[in-house]
Structure formats: C-alpha cells, structure tokens
Amino acid sequence: MDRIWNGLASFAMRHEKALAIAGAAWLALSSAVYARFVALPEIPFLTDEWAIWTSAGWNAAWWGFIHPQIDARRKRLAAEADGEKRR
Q1: Contact 51/57 with Cβ under 8 angstroms?
Q2: What is the pTM of this model?
Q3: Which residues neighbour 74 within 8 Å (Cβ) at sequence distance 6 or greater?
Q4: Is the dihedral of CA 45, 19, 60, 25 positive or negative?
Q5: Domain limits of the chain?
Q6: Closest Cα partner for 23 from 49, 48, 60, 50?
Q7: pLDDT in tens, 22-36
C-alpha cells in the first residue's frame, strides 16, 4: 500500500501547480454554471448540481489534506537530503 501512496504523492508533487490551477478553474466554472452566469448545454454530471459539489469536495481534499501532505513530504525529503550532505 505504501508503494501506491508514494506513487500518488510523487505524481502530486510533480504536478502540484497544474492540479491546483485545474481545481480552482473547475470550482470557478462549476460555480458560474450553477449560479447561471454561464450558460452551457445540459451535460449530466458536468452542468448539474453534482459538478459544484464534486469540485468543492476536490478542493477541500486538495487544500485540506493532499497539499499539506505534499509539503510535509517535501520537507522530510529535504531534511533527509540535508542529513546525507552533512555525513
């Protein structure tokens, strides 16, 4: 199981900025569609209420759990690399 989490963490670390931008854009677009500021054709799960809830859930997971874990992992890896340099 650790191998899977390490792979996902590595992916998230490499694409951190893209994931954050995509999540913010998804939330903004789904909010605009939900508030009827933007008119899109009716596409199930893309233009209904589920879109705003899933985008809000993704952003909550990203900023509340995943991103802090990435920062902690980055700091741990930097500390380990610094410890190896000192030896």
Answers
A1: no
A2: 0.67
A3: 13
A4: negative
A5: 2-86
A6: 60
A7: 989 988 888 888 888
